C-alpha cells in the first residue's frame, strides 16, 4: 500500500478556505497609489464601495485628464474635470496632466467663437487650479487652442520639477510670453510646437537656476543666443530659426540635434568646455554653405561620443572634412545611414582625425535599387591609424559591401586580430 501523498487531503480533514484581503484594510497611502493608476473617471467611481472610499478619490496624488478617455461629449469632459478639481480642493498633487486636442472626434471649432473662448477659459482655469495644489510634474498637451494664453502662475510655481508643454501654437507668439519667470526647482523642461522669441527664451533660462534638461521640439526659434550656467542636456528636434544661434553653456554635457540644423538655422558653440556627447542628424543640407558649420565642428574637440547621421550630415562632411580639427578625445564614433562602401573615403578621412578612437559603429544603408550593382566612387586607399580601436559594430539592411569595409578598417589598425567585430541587421 502506497503512503498517502502529503499534498492530498483526506475525507476527514476540513476544507481549507482561502480569502483575499479586503482592500479597505490597506493603509491610505497604498490605496491612493493604486487609484493613481486609474483614469480619473474610474477613480471617482470607487466612492460607492464603502464609507471609507467615499472621499478617498479627492486625495489622489496624480491626475491624468485625457479627452479621448471620454467617449461622450466635450461638455461632459468639461463638466467632469471642473467638478473633480473643485471637490478635491487644494489637496497635494504630485502629477498633473491635461491632454485636450481640438480636432478629431471632439471639435471645438464646430462651435461658435463664443463657445471656443469658453473652452480656452476652462483650460486656463484648470491649469491655475492644479498649480495651487503644488504639483511636482505637469504635462499640458493642448493642441489647437489658438487663442490660449498660459496663466502667469505656471511660470512662478515653485514646486515644479518637470514641465512639458505641447501647444501647437507656433502662429500665436503670445501663448508663452511670461514677463517674469521663477521656477527655482525646475530640472526638466520640454517645449513643443511653439514660437519662442528672444527675451522669452532667455527669461526662462534665467528663471530656472536648477534646469538640467531642455528639449525643444518643432519650435520656431526667434532668438539669437542661449545662455545657461546649469544646463547639462540640450535637445533640439525639427526646429527652425533665423540666423546663427549662439550657445553659451559651460556645464553642457550632451547636445542632440535632429533635423534642426538646416536652412537658415545655424548653431555656434561659443562656450561649451564640458561637452562630451553630440548627436547630429538631418536629412537636408543647405547649399548656401557658411562658416558656422566649420565653427561647429571645431567646437567638438572635447567630445568623447559623436554620432553623425543622415544624408545632410554626409553632404556637410564632404565640404568641411579637409579642414576638420583632430578629435583627440573622441572614443566612440557612430557614422552613416547611407551607402558606406560608396563613401568609404569620407569615413577614412574622418578616421584620420580620430587617433584615439576605441569603438566605431557603422550604419550601412540598403541600396536604392536592390540587386543592381552600384557604381563605387571610394578607393579605400586613404591611410589612417586607429591604434586604440577595440570594437567595430556594423549595422546593415543589405550585406553588399560590408566585408569590403571591414577589410579596409582592419588593415588600418595596429592589432586587427584583437578587434571585436559585431554585425546586426536592421
TrEMBL record:
Q: Name one Pfam family in it.
A: F-box
SMART domains membership: FBOX
**PROSITE patterns found in the cross-reference section:** FBOX
Region (Disordered) residue ranges read: 1-21
Q: Which residues form the F-box domain?
A: 20-68
The record's annotation in InterPro entries points to:
F-box-like_dom_sf, F-box_AtFBL13-like, F-box_dom, F-box_SCFL_complex_component, LRR_dom_sf, LRR_FXL15/At3g58940/PEG3-like
Give the protein name, as stated in the record. F-box/RNI-like/FBD-like domains-containing protein
